[in-house]
Amino acid sequence: MKVLVVKNQKDADRQGVKIFRQAYKHGARTFGLATGGTPEGLYRELCQSDLDFRDCIAINLDEYVGLDGNHPQSYRYYMQSNLFNQKPFAETYLPDGMAPSAKVECTHYNWIIATNPIDLQILGIGQNGHIGFNEPGTPFTSTTHVVNLTPSTIKANSRYFKDESQVPTQALTQGIGNILQAKQILLMAFGPEKAQAVKEALTGKVTEDLPASVLQKHPHVTVLLDEAAAALLPSEWVAEHVQHIY
Ligand SMILES: O=P(O)(O)OC[C@H]1O[C@](O)(CO)[C@@H](O)[C@@H]1O
């Protein structure tokens, strides 16, 4: 695992573009994408870059159950407005939150991932260590499934909605087993509210109680942090594992 700490989120976004560029140069054409506040700046930078994704496939991690792509808080809407409208991809996939059968949709989505192996997967991390919408306790072998969102995730994500009661209580998410299939993973985390989860994920024991800890087992992970998100990492660990980029 490579851990990079930069001064602030803006620097991290630029660093993220470099990682995208490098992956593309080495043949990456299928990108696993995330939503939430974390990658917004990265997508802004990608939109302003000269990178061309018209021969690429985008496969997102998750979608709220019950929101269609025209709902401003749906992840489809987020992806269209933050990236796809400005930087078209050949194909873009998100789970369908309006699918009549969640079970059929999950099988279909697993098939999409299996037939388009992800070269570079972008991840954010929840305050409880979730990746995608895989909440604590999710088996590391899980594939795409419906998840009941925890009260802490609903509360954290309510900042994007009018109020907490508007946040859907379920989502469709790639499982941890799917995420681990990606050839390369870039986990980004910013701000003090992520510091505890980052510390546990990177330096704690690998446990299903903290989904992101599984990344310690993946052969090709880069973690990109701002100073605030890195603040609780023990100094001896930092000395041994962290590269500061200023
Ligand atoms: O980047 P944010 O908004 O803090 O969210 C962190 C993570 O939570 C999710 O939004 C799911 O709640 C993920 O998609 C994201 O990576």
Describe this protein with a few key phrases.
single chain; 246 residues; alpha/beta; Rossmann fold; 8-stranded parallel beta sheet; 3-stranded antiparallel beta sheet; 9 helices; 11 strands; 33% helix; 19% strand; binds 6-O-phosphono-beta-D-fructofuranose; Glucosamine-6-phosphate deaminase; Glucosamine6P_isomerase; NagB/RpiA_transferase-like
Report on the architecture of this protein.
Helix 1 (9-25) packs across helix 2. The chain is built from nine helices and eleven strands. The model has no long low-confidence stretch (mean pLDDT 97). The strands form two sheets. An eight-stranded parallel β-sheet has the order 5-3-2-6-9-10-1-11. A three-stranded antiparallel β-sheet has the order 4-8-7, with helices on one face. With 246 residues, it is an alpha/beta fold. The protein has one domain: Rossmann fold (3-Layer(aba) Sandwich). It is an enzyme of class 3 (hydrolase).
